[in-house]
Records
---
Amino acid sequence: MARTQRPIDMELIFRALADRTRLRLLNLMGRDEVCVCYFVEVLKTPQSKISRHLAYLRRAGIVGARREGKWMHYRVVEPGDSRAAEMLKNVQEWLALDREMQRDRTRLVQMCCVKVPAHLAAAPKPPRIIAEV
């Protein structure tokens, strides 16, 4: 049975984008699928806070998730509404130009692919980020 797509809640999307932590999460995901453990490490923020922000982004319909064993992976999903999709694309392009966002992204690449902390050694690596290294 096909899943029906719920209508886009414009106010919810804008509220989701009105928080710096959520913007940093969107930036870290970029075009990748990223394990929550990397968000915690890069942003130096408790897992409970990261999960709360990711849940908000999921409710807004701009982030999807999947479980792989004990690991939760998150990715940006394109909203069904073309205006919302275009707006999200523009936000992501803008984030890529921000210095703090660039530093976050560099930390993610370093952490998952260059200097992997021991406690993240078993964590799944984002495939596109590995290709960047």
Note: The helical segments are 10-16, 20-29, 36-43, 47-59, 82-97, 99-114, 127-132.
---
Amino acid sequence: MPSPRRLSGLLLPLLLVFLASCSSSRRWEYEYHRGRTAVIVNGRAVPPAGLPRQVMEVINAGNRIAGKPYKYGGGHRSFQDSGYDCSGTVSYALHGAGLIKSPATSGGLRSYGSRGPGKHITVYAKSGHAFIVVAGLRLDTGYNGENEGPKWSTRSRPIKGYVARHPRGL
């Protein structure tokens, strides 16, 4: 039988690999990268210069509705509404750059665009909720059931159960 010291030397690396694999894919974490990541000023996203035009347009659209109230079904009959729910928010932002033609539900956003995270834009969707990350900032309607309405955030959130999608090339 191996000594306790030898056993711990074998198990510790396995435990570290296991823990690292658990945490890396289950949370969206904000990471600032100079020249690639937008910042929040007075509730609005301010992008760095040099981002692709469509990324800037998505940010501008998100800024237009940031601070509006949460409204269940908001943004689904029409992109223009007095308030927005989660998928209405994502749809409005994408529509601002011509990246979606009509509002989608959170379930519908699960098959939007291409599979996996994008370079500048990632849509996270699951049945019942969706949010979008643009130039490193999260545009979301709440977390932990807050239903605050659209706002930009750097606060991390779990992504277990979400599908990551992105517009082609972005």
Note: The CA atoms of residues 15 and 84 lie 43 Å apart.
---
Amino acid sequence: MTSMPVILYFKNPEIMLQVKIGRAQDNKQETNKDMVDREMIEKARRQAEGMYRSGQFLCSEAVFLVANEFLGRPVPDEMVRLASGFPVGMGTAGCVCGALSGGVMALGIRYGRTEAGAKTPGMFEAAKELHDRFVARRKFTCCRILTKKLELGSPEHMKQCIAITGEVTADVIELLGEK
């Protein structure tokens, strides 16, 4: 069965995301690149990096906000409060990278549940894929290890965390674009 793709445009002029939603035609699987093009992913990456770089938001917050924007703001932007405790490995505890935590939260906007006992199709798979991509790229998910040789707030620390925020955002947008 074939269907016409629906193209959605989001209002934020800095990101102008476009998402194709539709069925694969002629029994051919559409690839991720067909669903969300690289340019959109890169714009999302740059937007999240810019939020962090400017000091507007930290890693988990930036990933969450850009993903919410990508999805058409299904939750109010005020929900970013939920992501505010995750930077610097959960409030400076040095545990799981805040960008990764924010990324899993962002995936929950689409795949999470709102009713007790409801199914969460795709949530665990998407979260695991995000984790696995992070580990493949960075080897560790622990903020304390990722920043071991860096002074908190130093230019080197900022550069690394901005890059990680962008990487996770790109992965999240790609994963959200799969369905």
Note: Confidence is low (pLDDT under 50) at residues 1-33.
---
Amino acid sequence: MTNKKKKTTQAQKNKNKNKNKNKNKIQKKRVFNWKKLIQKSFFYLTLCALIVGTFLIYSNTNKIKYDLSVVGNGTPTVVQIHDHNCQLCRQLKSNLDDVKTDFTEEIQFKTANILAKKGANFAQKHDVAHVTLLFFNGQGKRVNTLQGVSSKDEIRTALEQLAK
């Protein structure tokens, strides 16, 4: 009987050792890893900052692009009366984009989106429809108008005259 008790107590000791090992493993898993938390937090904060920064740059660029109040500020200005749903407007924009890079230092380029209230009011004030380019001198006087899908050569000629 004592042998049986010894075997039983030995078996219980082994079980207790295994339980203690498992407890130690569980306790090791519960140790909080501050370094990982800080690294992950830094990563996600950086990602959020990039997303917010990109949005702010984009929205500021759009504000500048559609700011029609600059007409007459001393710099010649070209305003495209534009409807982004219109295929002809997109073709005119493409033609303008292809030639305007040569004139960005002398002329400012703006867009009047006729789907927005300010753009629609601007087009109505100047009595023009979409698919139109309006050319203003530095004092804000309209000096030229191109209606319809103008070719790159027509646009270039009008820009050269405005830049003089």
Note: The radius of gyration is 35 Å.
